[in-house]
Design goal:
The chain is of the alpha/beta class. Helix content is 35%, strand content 16%. It has helices spanning 49-61, 74-89, 104-110, 137-160, 176-182, 186-202, 217-234, 252-268, 286-300, 352-361, 407-420, 445-458, 473-486, 509-520, 571-584; strands at residues 18-20, 28-30, 37-41, 66-70, 96-100, 116-119, 164-170, 208-213, 243-244, 274-275, 332-335, 338-340, 347-350, 372-373, 380-382, 397-399, 428-430, 464-466, 495-498, 527-531, 546-552, 555-560, 563-570. Helix 5 (176-182) packs across helix 6. The protein binds iron/sulfur cluster.
Amino acid sequence: MKFCSSPYRYQRRATREVRVGNPACGGVIIGGQQPIVIQSMITCDTMDTAACVRETLALAAVGCQLVRITAPTVKDAANLKNIVAELRAQRCHIPIAADIHFKPEAAMEAAQWVEKIRINPGNFADSKKFLTRAYTEDEYAAELERLEDRFAPLVQICRDLSRAMRIGANHGSLSDRILNRYGDTPLGMVQSALEFTRIARKYDFHNLVFSMKASNPKVTIEAYRLLAAKLEALGPDWNYPFHLGVTEAGEGEDGRLKSAVGIGSLLGDGLGDTIRVSLTEDSPHEIPVCRELIEQVGLLYPSHSEVTGVSQAEPPLSFDPFMYASRPAREVAIGPDLRCGGSQPVRVIVTRAVADEWGRNSIPKEKTIPEAVYDDLLVAELDPRKDFATPQPGQLVTVKDDPGLAPVAAFRLLAARLKAGGLDNPILLKDGLVSAGANSESRGTLYQAAIILGALLADGIGDAILIRGERKATPAVRLAYNILQASGCRSFKTDYVACPSCGRTLFHLQTVTANIKARTQHLPGVKIAIMGCIVNGPGEMADANFGYVGGAPGKVNLYVGKQPVKFNVPEAEAVNRLVDLIREHGQWVEPESPTSPAE
Ligand code: SF4
């Protein structure tokens, strides 16, 4: 199965153009050779027309090209008419997408007023019961017929009114039918979308975009790659564009890094025609992040004609692009009490200059510390395009600078060559391959590092990482650990899955997230989900240990794993009850100081 034309040379996946509105009058085209479209979602109540208009105008003003608004009920969907009319009256022609869960009738209403409909195939025609039961072939076929009865009317209205549609599968909110057959897996997400696509195609509707979002960047990457490969196998007219996103990424640097790892990695594979960065912040903050990711990927992945050095006979990948596994590497000593490779955590290596600065200003009790100095390690710097001398068995290897290849391609090639030669040396990843001096600090440092290192770590490549783009010691070390945490490779602080909020949100996400973080950010290995509602089901909290979920206005439900254990907790008490729950389950430790070192 092929998910891109070559994992060693950038080439954007060939897709058809999907029109959202009239491009001559503010609409956009997603796919084809068009630039990647930037989009976001407003967060206010859909019945509050003035707020919706205000938030949409604010997004348009910072360069957002497509705005999504939730339509939880038919009444909300009907109010889209007023929102769109007011926007157009104010000469704002940005296309609007309606976000639909559970309610086909809301989708039918919304399709009359907005340019695009997003459906979730996991809940469009299925009310979630989370029942586990076996489906016979006949029962499964009957389910698909029921699906067609529910979905075909929407397809027909979208086709007749020239609307676009996103079939947006989410990890953790798949139908019982799909869960039963494929599990909560990237394959389940892909099959779920394909079931709906077959119905759309049967009614000759092709103005479709796909998304495969998860809060875990690795799952996100696997699902999109698998979808690309399946569509490629189905034939050239299954060339529907992709909407990329890592859902519930959270806020601040962590949310940006998670998004950079997931979205940046996929863009580098040539996948993706429109992107949304989901941050638990005011939605206009998402737009510069989208822009930065697109710009950095453009710089990091030169067009395939410019890449030299990989012969026509490209070596097979060292990893399975559809299923994460860490590359088997020999465990070696890299210090008196420090080992790397094997089952060791991915190590944080620093330059001599960073180590010296760190030594001068070291912070007592700091948990994120440099673990070794590059210059002390005798790392073998190899040119993966050429035959190289066999490194010593205990030696770390890396790619030499200026290899004439994009960094991700260069390290993939190195891993492939090592595997072909039967070599299992641990690999040290670098955040860039431009020789010293040229790779100076820039505003792109954080994104570049996350895109390069995150993509490779998600491929299972890398036993240690070195940040060179950031020269100051504390930010360089913090960035290294934060990238490892965002990539799911190492946990040094609490991990948060926080939804970006929308018109369904039952509490103020940003305030609550800040309150929860203030109490719990010192718990390495603990993952907490903060969700404004439970529309997509508890599965969407991914593998969180604890969940804080809007149950009703002013009321919160608390989860342990995917199990709700406390219902309708008054919001004023809910953070304390969450801490109690973490204590009861033996995962609480007292913070060392009121200001935890975790960033
Ligand atoms: S989980 Fe958050 S973003 Fe998703 S529908 Fe609920 S409130 Fe909206």
